């Protein structure tokens, strides 16, 4: 992609206003907290301290809007405290320009490096540095600087207290993400009716798992209906695929396919009903026709073999997910035999479970388990999951430090971002101070606010910030000139602007930046600065900061495009280990640990998401693809995705512990794992992998292995599908290599 087109695409994305569900009560709560802090600090210390302290409450409320599953009060306290400390230290060094410049560079570098701990921590740290550049100019003495810092910490405490005292949809985000995962599976079931090999995006399931990691306090208060449904949803997805796929499920046409269509539609309706129940905290209302589809005895006579086993397992899992979500009005109505449940229910992963205390042993009804908060409700509903543990606030700080230490190397993307943003902040501060505009801090503040570790976000946010600044300045200037507000009215207008920003924060950067600009103009006006002192300088210096951010990425880039072969190789390697773990389970059902399969699946999902995000970023980068073309890489990626899909189909038919072992599967799994590891290295090096050794092992084990039990049935058909996916991968890369050889060997048509 050319630079001109890349700038056009990123600029358009930055100016896009998305249609999102607004949360007016949450926005109003943040505005109320801001108003309380402004009113109290103005009464106690005066307008100047009120203007500074308001930034603490303002930023603390923004922190609670970030996508994080940790308790919101912790985010507000961490944000307000870090901003207060930064402001006080910044004021102490502000009189010495070189010392303050050094502090700014170090502080900004650490804020850039904090992106290693996640986007929430990175956003809070970067925004605090940007706001510090403004707040250090407000105090006039050390005592007043201490008062400013204390009131910023107080602002964070106020916002945290309001989150606790005025909860809005407590556990609402966790409910939404779990409901989204179930709704995604319902949509998947409907797509399988038209396309039996339709792909499935695991992102909703991954977000649900991330949301299921709780602190100790959250684990004690989590609603019972959020306990077990996620684990069951994880197991429903491969069963849906196995039921629909003609290779290991029902026939492509005839009565079996009609019955599968009916069951998939009924499963989608039930999953949608459960998703709505979880989202709104009520009992599920199951469609009668969907329940009847699973209750009819015709399924057992029409479907046979793997398709029948998949249908039975699906009925069991749907019954359990309804019970885990709180049950259905009048009972679930879904038939489930206890013997079938015992055969189908798999043990939970070792990383997510623990031994059941003796005091909790013995049967208990699902209703009784739901009345008691705690992880044992999962066992009563059949999911067998306990909450994943998330560290507390101090554990978060320790984890953030460890993550930053891991990324403190020159080859790291986060390290390069930290160096870029530190240099730009220092350069912006020097240029802003040298220009005869005044308020030179706007330039480094704008740069720090827009810079992100990747190209597309940095450029889109730079365009959005400048556009939002123009809109916000125009509106705020018009209001100031017409109303000529006093201190109280300026504070009220600042609170109103902040409330609008909280409301529109998720709709896009343009609207949010316009509200932030208006907020800053009104708040600084309340502190004694005239609008003429801020508006012209802010526009020009914001433009300067955005240009510096763009130039920094152009001069010291960190492109994702050259990493694509490595990302693809990682995905191939993890999918190979996942498929090998599944096949190995058939070799020794009694001795295999399903936790290994689960761990391999999670690793493969992480690699897939890393590939997808890298691929999306690379599409917007103005850098030429080296090695295989984009079309060849995309074809290879489809083959790797098919590899994971086939492994998922096999996982849906994993045998229980009483099944006879299959030694031939172990030999194929070993050959397959070794071949994919070797192929991943070849893909990184730009070579085309070959699979003759895997094919030889498969043919030998299918015809007559030494133990006398050849691969057959689901194992054989799935193994052949795995090999087909590997050969499709090589074919995509081989065709590209052949085209390059032909272009190289072709004579030059130009006359000599």
UniProtKB/TrEMBL annotation:
Pfam families attached to this UniProt entry: FUSC_2
Tell me where the transmembrane regions lie.
21-39, 123-143, 149-168, 418-442, 462-480, 487-504, 510-527, 539-556
Per UniProt, the keywords (alphabetical) are: Coiled coil, Membrane, Transmembrane, Transmembrane helix
Against InterPro entries, the record matches this protein to:
Memb_transporter_dom
Compositionally biased, Basic and acidic residues: which spans? 367-379
Bias-annotated ranges (Low complexity):
351-366
GO cellular component terms attached to this protein's record:
membrane
Q: Where can this protein be found?
A: Membrane
Q: Which ranges carry the Integral membrane bound transporter domain?
A: 429-551
**Do the record's keywords include Coiled coil?**
yes
Q: Where is this region: Disordered?
A: 327-391
Coiled-coil segments: 716-743
The UniProt record lists the keyword Transmembrane: yes
Membrane topology qualifier: Multi-pass membrane protein
Name of protein: Integral membrane bound transporter domain-containing protein
